[in-house]
Design a protein that fits this description.
Structural class: alpha+beta
Order of helices and strands: HEHEHEEEEEHH
CATH topology: Beta Polymerase, domain 2
Radius of gyration: 17 Å
Low-confidence stretches: none
CATH class: Alpha Beta
């Protein structure tokens, strides 16, 4: 997958196998890393992992030496979860157990919906499908999330791949 920047590649090659081993429930990448894995042209500053609360607890215990205790989650008035940020080679990893968002209509659980597996050097990386990622970004309601949703929309195939011919 040539569009994966080196820092993200390094992080995922260390992170993903551990998630497959240590998570008992389904998990996936969301945020900019999830969008990039589908081919969206977005920058990635960290890796957001959506997990169950129980799996978040297990990862916090497992990676205690990697935990960035000084980091507070951004937008904590809009988002809540069983959250921790970890130091990994390449990029930081943010684990969100049972993530919820309040876009003004009360707390709603963030569901990844349909997942797809993206291959990366023999790793199976689960991410929400294209339409599910767009839905998630739109539910977050921030300007940067709208930009990411637009980047994903540009990946959709046109209705017709046949050239348009005009007769004059």
């Amino acid at each position: 997958m040539s569009h994966v920047p080196p820092a993200l590649f390094v992080t995922l090659t260390e992170l993903v196998p551990g998630l497959h081993v240590h998570c008992a429930d389904p998990w996936c990448l969301i945020g900019s890393a999830g969008a990039l894995m589908l081919g969206a042209e977005v920058g990635v500053a960290d890796v957001d992992v959506l997990v169950s609360r129980a799996d978040a607890e297990a990862l916090m215990a497992l990676w205690i030496e990697r935990r960035d205790m000084g980091h507070a989650p951004p937008d904590d008035d809009r988002f809540r979860s069983h959250y921790a940020r970890f130091r990994f080679p390449g990029l930081p990893v943010e684990v969100m157990g049972d993530l919820e968002v309040d876009a003004g209509d009360g707390w709603q659980r963030v569901s990844p919906g349909k997942l797809v597996l993206v291959g990366l050097e023999g790793l199976a990386v689960p991410v929400p499908s294209l339409d599910e990622q767009i839905r998630i970004f739109e539910s977050f309601g921030r300007a940067r999330d709208c930009v990411r949703a637009d980047a994903l929309r540009r990946l959709r195939q046109p209705f017709s791949v046949l050239p348009t011919v005009s007769s004059s």
